[in-house]
């Protein structure tokens, strides 16, 4: 693989779905999948996953999943850069499993650690009556395919309501991207990336 | 608990050892003391209880106890002493005993902690002495909590008490019975612990005797007499108490023993002893008594208790042990403690505060107002009766509505407060104001009717005005470095005119102005500059001329000289002008000064301090004159030279013109001559030429006048005149004016009144300046008084810290007179460049003026008012208030000398800065660009000095312009930077293979759709990728005849392909058009009931339905979207249930007998419905022989599965077959699945077992004795697309069977001699019952037709019709969602067409009509067969997921492919032309689904025709595949079925009945007479017979090859003889329509091939392509015969029908030689 003329580049994603902030709901789990273009293929890792169900702690009112993501893509073309689609589900009042949010974000292309907070939303019922019946029957409107949220096509027909946030953390490693002529590393002028707890950062000691 | 029990075990052992030693040492006193102790404890408890809040105190004390874990035994002893003293009193409290009990029980919850504390206290006998001291000190400290806790506990107690009382009662009875039996062994752990605790509490209390004893005393007084009784009873109660307490817990019941009868006596004794003492102490002397009591036991017991304090307890324990071993457990804990106090783990229950307790506790803090009505007496002052004002006739406002509950709550709440009564009125109700809410609105109602509205109230729409500056913040503001500051320095102002100016002021101002001008001119000294320049130029010319000596002047030099001369001329003129101005100015100054002087004289006072001096500078007259003369001479000579030159030029010009004129003259003359000639010759051509030449000459040029010679003298004269006018005369002194302000102003008192008034007025005035930044006032100067010289000095600097981008800075000058302020003027100050900083900025004089009209009645001239200096009022002039404001705006400098100015780039250009850096042209902007040429021209003409810094920017621009040749664009560039962002040019983009690949992929070109991994680098993209694509593009027009056997069909296929492509492209947009249902899954709103039988209604209905477990039903399965499927996920599920009327074998007579031949006349007419069968069964039928052994084989995607073999002509398999389905290319998308063309073949075979004859058996040694053959009987074909679309197919299907089945007969009379005949007659042919579905159930891709509802197609239909049809369909959908209704369809061009336009009588081929002219029935059949021979091609296959397209009949016949509806339309049209009554049926059928059939009415009978196979059914035919009928269509109407049923059998076809059929065109909406889309007549071509024969040969050849191919391991022999026989037979079959020939044929065959066992059949297919034929042959499985001696016979016959409709018959047979 140490060829000087690579024909593909690799994108390694390591991270986790840290948690979510869904003020009204509890006992949620989430599901993720990746959406990527034709020129992309996963080489290792899991493309999809379902997390455990998590409950809010009494103090923080945050849902913590800490659900790991680990996947490596290979690609020939940055077009169709992978996106992660996260959908969150949980029981409603009648303990029916309903969707609590969809959200998507592009995988960061800069190597390093990134934290992304993505807003989540759910499709709205088309009418009040339907809203009521869907609530009663525990079958809220859902996207036919969660991957819809990573695309623009067809979204104009939907109406959504925002519903909480999900925080994701990525550690990105790329290989051969620069060799193929794509420079994604931030320029020197840019400020160093802000890491998790700025201000209280401790020096690394090993 | 396990661990504790372990410890206990250990402890038990220890304890025993210890006990043994102790038992001996024990003496009476000890025992006594211990007993006493116990009793004391009890009594102590009671004592506590006797007080007001026993429970509370107990709890508190317990807490204290817990804290004091290191308490000692000694302590306890001390306490006991005091207790003994107090004993008696406590006895008196007996009446409160019950309370004691309750408290005791309450303590149960705290038992655990008590145990611990006790346990701990018991661990410390060793350290008792030390601890004793400590505890004493501590006890005093622990006191305070107790009294404090008292006041609030009584409430909770009472409730507790009640409960406990009940418990107690039960317990008491129990305990009493126990006592009687003398079995006091019950472990009373709780009590024990309580007692222990009591001692402690006791101890606490001991030191606060006053508190305790006050109640004690009271109670003792009252209850003194019952003491004794109580004493006795108490003991009993103790026991009862024991019993009353639940005893589930493990005991720490060391002291349980004290309920034994023995100790009971002892305490009583003691008590007796004590009593006298306590009695003495009675009567208020408790304190003393207490004290005594304390001392006594101390003396007695201290020695005893000190050492073996524990032993007492143990003693008792021991005693009890003897009686009841149970108690042991309790003891162990004691020792556990002894063993290790550190190890002791505190295990507690979770602290739970009971509800009641919590309520009790909360009640201390919370107050819950009652909702009960407060009695009026509480609310009124005492002894007051409520007084009702209403009753007294006083007006009382209506009270606002407040609910009674709330009012009660409020009242209760108020009553708790101080001064509660003041809230209540005389009537005992809360004082309220009357209800403020008015019943009717006081505001006049606004009527929103447009017209009625008062015009003044009408709203006017005003567009929102966006503030331009609102959002334009300075960049970087908010940062520390982002402080920008503007310094606005308002220095002052000078009026050049003001209303208060006197006349003198006016003149003075003018003078000053002139003088200023003079000064500035002098400063510039242009005259001098120009004079110098002029002389310089003259010198240059002279030098040049001298240098070259007047000859040999090069072209350039000459030109330059000429230029210089020109220059000299211009310069001279300019100098002259300047000089003239100078002189005029000077004259003016003098003139004005004179006027002033005159005015001063006139008015006799001076107002202005101006004074003009004229300084004379003497000059040397001689030199001056000389210079003057030289100047004039030079000028004259130059002018003369010029004029000469001019003259010469003119002369040459004149000559030239003259010359021209002359030639013209000549020509004219010549022409005239010519003309004459021409007139003679009459030559037309020449004439023409001449005309032309005449024209060429044009109009006659004017004869030029010769120029006049210049008058040189005149020139000189002019020069001199001019010099005299504009120049100082030689020798005249130079006058230099000097203006000073040294003149004295006449003081006020010497002035006339008018002037005085003016001056006073001036003093009244003051001015100030407002500073406005971005139209907002930011600051203003102080108000300064106007001075007499009309100058105002402000000298204020304003520092503006700015956030918004500076858009404008304005200064407004205000004048104040008294209190009124008027704005005089507004001055805009330019926003300074960032480089202009405070230190370096120069003050600017900004002129302003005001058009205010001001008049005065004093000397002030006013402004905008005409006035005159002249006495007569002539020469009036009007002046406006004006002046100069001197101010300076600059960017401030910060403390560190950092300019507080925005960065340069931002300041310079704002948004466009980026563009400016890149594009010099864009910098100027598009408008600048247009003028670029002009600019360049101007720059060249004006001879800008390139070195002048003022011109730098222009020169730079020009250099840019000239550098990159500027072509002024004649277009508008919208995105100026587009090119910048183009990575490469379009040509390059086209050349790049990679980009091409990417582009083709996004365009979704078929070859590249979903192409994965477009390589990164250009070189990795090989040309091969495009080969297919390019080939396709190239080959577009070339027809490949190889694939298609028929050239015509190839063309059609191509055409179809094209249509398909165009349609697909047309719908590509539609495909990307999403509906909500495509994106969001949403539950339908359940409807209750209705025709739709909504979810809810259905479910409700189902609930009511009786359960029928014996009638299983197929349940709806969950649907799966096809996206996440892969190979093997989809299964095809076939349930083959049964079949009817399978043909049976004929007896295998080795030699056919004539008799049997004659008898068997079974007609095998499966295609006709009405010919009754009259077959008879031969008498020689061997009964024991198996009739037929059929099995079913299912072939799908070349997978073959079969059922087991059943027997008989009506077999029942009921087997399930699972076939896996794989989509083409693994693409499971909906569109891909829809276009799957695979068919499911369900073949019925007969399994025939042949015994092998002896001879053969011998040959094949010991191997087979029998072999199995399978004979194809028939098949059912179901396309996958149908299954996919309908998701399940359930029904009985007619088996397609060949007309001739060799070796089989259609047997149906053997068993049906009875009454079945009638039924049977209706059903000819075999039927099979099937259930087919796909597992998992796939969501069938809806056709885009539904989506298209809102994507309107082009249409030529009337809007009204379309609306009506939409409404009609919607209505139909609502009422009968299951019934298809079609009003508009899409034609092949993608246009919406009303369906009735398709129906029109059309002539069938004449040939068919001629075939049997006498039998209309037969003709109809023939026509139907002709239609069915046109190959069927479902639209959903050809236009995958796009829509259903309807082609017209001629299109259909040209394409020779179409859907059911095309067949139906054609058939219907044929029938109509034949004079039949025919309708098109839109309905659903098995297995097609939504389809179109044809209905005819004939001889009072309705016939339903299936156009796809030419069959027809009576209305009451049970096996009619048509299941539901949605609507009927004919040429002028559509009827929708609104009957209750939709099955053909159960409905009436009488469309005139509006009850049954809802017409589209009714009286309300009459038929508009739509023209048909069909042609008037169909023209048929005769099909080429030769071509058909050729095709026949080719098919035969191909099939032969295929069969051999399918038998790779066996030789395939062909029996030619048989083949030729078959070949002869096929045309006959075709002619007869497959009827009435079979028998003869078979006989023929049999006679020919007697020694063979033949099994075979003819296949009949419409011809479209070769592939279906091959498939059909394959599915029969004839080739699978594996016997070695098998031979095959194959014959193909293609019968041509008109218009290239071909009927293909394939006869396939296998022959086995039987002998």
UniProtKB/TrEMBL annotation, chain A:
The keyword Hydrolase does not apply. This is B9 domain-containing protein 1. Keywords: Cell projection, Cilium biogenesis/degradation, Cytoplasm, Cytoskeleton. Part of the tectonic-like complex (also named B9 complex). It comes from Alosa alosa. It comes from the Eukaryota. One of its GO terms (biological process) is cilium assembly. InterPro entries: C2_B9-type_dom. Component of the tectonic-like complex, a complex localized at the transition zone of primary cilia and acting as a barrier that prevents diffusion of transmembrane proteins between the cilia and plasma membranes. Required for ciliogenesis and sonic hedgehog/SHH signaling.
């Amino acid at each position: 693989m140490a060829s000087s003329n690579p024909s593909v580049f690799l994108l390694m994603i390591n991270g986790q779905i840290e948690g979510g902030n869904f003020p009204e709901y509890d006992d949620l789990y989430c599901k993720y999948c990746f959406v990527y273009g034709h020129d992309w293929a996963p080489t290792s890792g899991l493309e999809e996953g379902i997390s455990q169900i998590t409950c809010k702690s009494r103090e923080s009112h945050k849902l913590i999943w800490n659900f790991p993501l680990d996947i490596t893509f290979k690609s020939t073309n940055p077009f169709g850069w992978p996106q992660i689609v996260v959908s969150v589900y949980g029981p409603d009042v009648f303990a029916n499993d309903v969707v609590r949010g969809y959200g998507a974000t592009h995988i960061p292309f800069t190597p390093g650690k990134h934290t992304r907070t993505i807003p989540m939303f759910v499709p709205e019922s088309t009418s009040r009556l339907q809203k009521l019946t869907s609530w009663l029957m525990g079958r809220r409107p859902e996207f036919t395919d969660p991957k819809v949220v990573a695309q623009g096509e067809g979204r104009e027909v939907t109406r959504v309501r925002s519903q909480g946030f999900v925080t994701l953390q990525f550690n990105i490693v790329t290989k051969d991207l620069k060799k193929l002529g794509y420079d994604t590393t931030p320029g020197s002028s840019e400020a160093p990336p802000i890491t998790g707890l700025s201000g209280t950062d401790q020096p690394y000691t090993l | 608990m396990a661990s504790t029990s372990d410890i206990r075990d250990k402890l038990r052992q220890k304890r025993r050892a210890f006990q043994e030693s102790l038992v001996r040492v024990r003496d009476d006193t000890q025992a006594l003391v211990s007993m006493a102790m116990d009793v004391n404890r009890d009594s102590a408890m009671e004592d506590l209880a006797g007080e007001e809040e026993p429970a509370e105190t107990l709890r508190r004390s317990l807490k204290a106890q817990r804290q004091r874990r290191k308490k000692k035994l000694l302590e306890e002893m001390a306490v006991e002493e005091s207790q003994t003293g107090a004993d008696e009193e406590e006895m008196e409290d007996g009446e409160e005993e019950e309370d004691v009990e309750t408290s005791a029980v309450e303590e149960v919850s705290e038992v655990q902690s008590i145990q611990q504390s006790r346990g701990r206290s018991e661990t410390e006998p060793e350290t008792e002495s030390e601890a004793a001291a400590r505890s004493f000190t501590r006890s005093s400290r622990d006191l305070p909590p107790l009294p404090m806790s008292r006041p609030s506990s009584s409430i909770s107690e009472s409730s507790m008490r009640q409960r406990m009382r009940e418990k107690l009662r039960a317990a008491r009875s129990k305990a009493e019975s126990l006592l009687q039996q003398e079995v006091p062994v019950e472990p009373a752990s709780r009590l024990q612990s309580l007692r222990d605790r009591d001692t402690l509490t006791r101890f606490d209390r001991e030191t606060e005797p006053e508190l305790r004893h006050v109640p004690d005393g009271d109670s003792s007084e009252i209850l003194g007499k019952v003491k004794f009784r109580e004493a006795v009873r108490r003991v009993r109660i103790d026991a009862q108490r024991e019993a009353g307490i639940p005893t589930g817990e493990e005991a720490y019941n060391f002291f349980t023993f004290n309920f034994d009868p023995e100790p009971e006596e002892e305490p009583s004794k003691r008590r007796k002893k004590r009593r006298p003492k306590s009695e003495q102490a009675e009567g208020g002397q408790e304190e003393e008594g207490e004290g005594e009591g304390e001392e006594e036991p101390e003396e007695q017991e201290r020695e005893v208790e000190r050492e073996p304090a524990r032993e007492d307890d143990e003693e008792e324990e021991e005693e009890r042990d003897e009686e009841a071993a149970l108690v042991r457990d309790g003891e162990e804990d004691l020792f556990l403690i002894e063993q290790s106090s550190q190890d002791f783990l505190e295990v507690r229950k979770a602290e739970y505060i009971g509800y009641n307790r919590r309520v009790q506790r909360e009640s201390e803090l919370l107050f819950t107002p009652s909702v009960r009505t407060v009695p009026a007496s509480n609310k009124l002052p005492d002894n007051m009766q409520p007084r009702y004002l209403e009753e007294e006739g006083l007006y009382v406002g209506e009270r606002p509505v407040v609910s009674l509950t709330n009012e009660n709550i409020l009242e209760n709440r108020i009553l708790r407060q101080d001064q509660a009564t003041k809230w209540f009125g005389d009537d005992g109700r809360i004082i309220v104001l009357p209800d403020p809410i008015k019943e009717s609105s006081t505001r006049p109602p606004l009527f929103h009717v447009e017209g009625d509205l008062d015009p003044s109230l009408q709203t006017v729409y005003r567009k929102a005005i966006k503030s331009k500056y609102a959002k334009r913040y300075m960049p970087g503001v908010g940062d520390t470095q982002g402080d920008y500051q503007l310094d606005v320095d308002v220095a002052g102002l000078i009026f050049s005119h003001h209303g208060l100016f006197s006349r003198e002021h006016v003149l003075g101002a003018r003078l000053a102005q002139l003088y200023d001008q003079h000064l500035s001119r002098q400063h510039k000294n242009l005259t001098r500059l120009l004079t110098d320049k002029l002389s310089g130029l003259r010198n240059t010319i002279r030098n040049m001329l001298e240098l070259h000596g007047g000859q040999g002047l090069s072209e350039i030099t000459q030109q330059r000289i000429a230029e210089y001369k020109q220059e000299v001329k211009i310069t001279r003129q300019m100098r002259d002008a300047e000089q003239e101005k100078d002189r005029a100015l000077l004259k003016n100054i003098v003139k004005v000064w004179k006027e002033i002087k005159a005015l001063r004289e006139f008015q006799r006072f001076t107002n202005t301090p101006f004074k003009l001096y004229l300084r004379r500078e003497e000059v040397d007259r001689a030199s001056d004159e000389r210079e003057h003369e030289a100047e004039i001479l030079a000028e004259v000579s130059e002018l003369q030279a010029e004029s000469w030159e001019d003259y010469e030029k003119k002369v040459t010009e004149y000559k030239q013109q003259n010359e021209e004129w002359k030639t013209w003259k000549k020509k004219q003359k010549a022409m005239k001559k010519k003309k004459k000639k021409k007139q003679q010759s009459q030559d037309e051509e020449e004439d023409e030429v001449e005309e032309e030449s005449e024209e060429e000459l044009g109009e006659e040029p004017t004869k030029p006048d010769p120029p006049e010679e210049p008058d040189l003298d005149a020139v000189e004269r002019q020069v001199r005149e001019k010099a005299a006018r504009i120049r100082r005369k030689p020798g005249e002194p130079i006058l230099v004016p000097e203006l000073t302000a040294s003149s004295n102003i006449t003081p006020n008192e010497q002035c006339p009144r008018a002037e005085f008034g003016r001056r006073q007025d001036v003093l009244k005035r003051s001015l100030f300046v407002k500073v406005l930044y971005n139209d907002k006032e930011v600051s203003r100067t102080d108000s300064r008084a106007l001075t007499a010289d009309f100058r105002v000095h402000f000298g204020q600097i304003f520092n503006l810290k700015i956030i918004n981008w500076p858009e404008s800075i304005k200064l407004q000058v205000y004048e104040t007179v008294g209190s009124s302020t008027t704005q005089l003027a507004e001055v805009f100050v330019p926003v300074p460049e960032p480089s202009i900083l405070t230190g370096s900025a120069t003050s600017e004089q900004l002129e302003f003026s005001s058009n205010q009209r001001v008049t005065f009645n004093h000397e002030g001239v006013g402004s905008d008012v005409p006035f005159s200096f002249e006495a007569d009022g002539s020469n009036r002039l009007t002046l406006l208030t004006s002046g100069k404001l001197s101010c300076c705006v600059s960017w401030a400098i910060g403390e560190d000398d950092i300019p507080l100015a925005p960065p340069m780039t931002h300041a310079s250009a704002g948004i466009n800065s980026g563009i400016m850096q890149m594009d010099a042209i864009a910098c100027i902007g598009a408008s600048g660009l247009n003028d670029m040429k002009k600019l360049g021209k101007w720059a060249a003409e004006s001879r800008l000095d390139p070195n002048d810094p003022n011109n730098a920017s222009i020169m730079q621009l020009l250099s840019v312009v000239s550098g990159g040749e500027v072509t002024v664009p004649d277009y508008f560039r919208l995105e100026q930077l587009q090119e910048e962002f183009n990575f490469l040019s379009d040509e390059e983009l086209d050349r790049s293979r990679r980009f091409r690949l990417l582009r083709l992929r996004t365009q979704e070109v078929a070859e590249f759709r979903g192409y994965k991994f477009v390589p990164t680098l250009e070189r990795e993209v090989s040309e091969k990728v495009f080969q297919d694509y390019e080939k396709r593009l190239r080959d577009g027009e070339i027809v490949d005849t190889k694939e298609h056997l028929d050239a015509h069909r190839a063309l059609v296929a191509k055409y179809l392909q094209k249509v398909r492509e165009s349609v697909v492209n047309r719908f590509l947009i539609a495909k990307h058009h999403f509906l909500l249902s495509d994106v969001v899954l949403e539950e339908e709103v359940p409807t209750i009931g209705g025709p739709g039988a909504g979810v809810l209604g259905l479910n409700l209905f189902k609930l009511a339905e009786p359960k029928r477990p014996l009638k299983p039903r197929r349940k709806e399965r969950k649907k799966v979207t096809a996206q996440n499927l892969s190979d093997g996920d989809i299964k095809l599920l076939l349930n083959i249930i049964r079949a009817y009327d399978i043909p049976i074998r004929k007896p295998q007579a080795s030699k056919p007998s004539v008799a049997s031949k004659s008898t068997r006349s079974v007609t095998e007419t499966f295609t006709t419905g009405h010919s009754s069968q009259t077959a008879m069964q031969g008498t020689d039928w061997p009964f024991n022989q198996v009739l037929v052994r059929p099995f079913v084989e299912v072939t799908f995607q070349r997978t073959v599965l079969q059922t087991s073999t059943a027997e008989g002509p009506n077999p029942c398999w009921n087997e399930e077959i699972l076939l896996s389905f794989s989509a083409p290319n693994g693409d499971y998308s909906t569109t891909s699945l829809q276009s799957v063309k695979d068919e499911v073949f369900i073949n019925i075979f007969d399994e025939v077992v042949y015994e092998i004859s002896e001879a053969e058996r011998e040959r094949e040694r010991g191997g087979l004795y029998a072999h199995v053959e399978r004979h194809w009987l028939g098949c059912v074909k179901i396309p996958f697309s149908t299954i996919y679309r309908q998701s399940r197919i359930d029904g009985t299907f007619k088996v397609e069977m060949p007309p001739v089945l060799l070796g089989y007969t259609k047997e149906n009379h053997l068993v049906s001699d009875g009454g079945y005949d009638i039924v049977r007659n209706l059903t000819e042919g075999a039927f099979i019952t099937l259930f087919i579905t796909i597992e998992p159930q796939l969501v069938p891709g809806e056709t885009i037709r539904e989506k298209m509802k809102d994507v309107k197609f082009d249409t030529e239909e009337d809007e009204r019709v379309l609306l009506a049809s939409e409404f009609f369909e919607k209505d139909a959908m609502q009422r009968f969602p299951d019934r298809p209704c079609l009003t508009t369809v899409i034609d092949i061009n993608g246009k919406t067409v009303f369906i009735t336009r398709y129906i029109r009588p059309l002539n069938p081929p004449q040939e068919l009509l001629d075939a049997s002219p006498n039998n209309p029935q037969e003709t109809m059949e023939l026509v139907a067969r002709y239609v069915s021979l046109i190959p069927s091609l479902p639209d959903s296959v050809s236009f995958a997921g796009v829509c259903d397209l309807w082609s017209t009949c001629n299109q259909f016949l040209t394409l020779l492919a179409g859907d059911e509806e095309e067949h139906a339309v054609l058939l219907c049209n044929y029938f109509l032309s034949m004079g039949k009554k025919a309708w098109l049926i839109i309905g659903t059928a098995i297995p097609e689904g939504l389809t179109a059939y044809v209905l005819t009415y004939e001889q009072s009978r309705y016939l339903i025709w299936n156009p796809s196979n030419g069959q027809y059914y009576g209305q009451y035919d049970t096996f009619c595949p048509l299941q539901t009928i949605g609507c009927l269509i004919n040429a002028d109407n559509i009827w929708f079925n609104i009957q209750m049923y939709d099955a053909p059998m159960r409905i009436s076809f009488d469309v005139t009945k509006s009850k049954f059929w809802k017409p589209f065109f009714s009286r309300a909406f009459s038929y508009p007479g739509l023209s048909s889309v069909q042609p008037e007549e169909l023209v048929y071509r005769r099909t080429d017979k030769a071509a058909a024969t050729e095709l026949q040969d080719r098919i035969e050849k191909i099939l032969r090859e295929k069969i051999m191919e399918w038998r790779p391991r066996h030789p395939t022999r062909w029996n030619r003889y048989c083949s030729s026989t078959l070949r002869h037979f096929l045309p006959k079959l075709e002619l007869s329509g497959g009827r009435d020939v079979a028998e003869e044929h078979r006989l023929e065959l049999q006679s020919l091939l007697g020694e063979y066992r033949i099994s075979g059949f003819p296949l009949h297919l419409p011809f479209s392509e070769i592939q279906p034929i091959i498939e059909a042959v394959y599915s029969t499985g004839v080739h699978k015969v594996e016997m070695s001696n098998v031979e095959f016979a194959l014959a193909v016959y293609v019968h041509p029908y008109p218009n290239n409709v071909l009927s293909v018959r394939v006869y396939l047979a296998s022959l086995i030689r039987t002998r």
